Amino acid sequence: MSKKLLLVPAALAWLALPALGAHVMFSQSPVAHQIRPTAAHAQFATLGQGSLGQKREAAVIAATRRYVGAHPDAPAAMREGRELAPVDVLNADLASQHVDFRVRAVKGIRAQFYEVMS
Question: What is the average pLDDT value for the chain, to the nearest integer?
Answer without folding.
Answer: 78
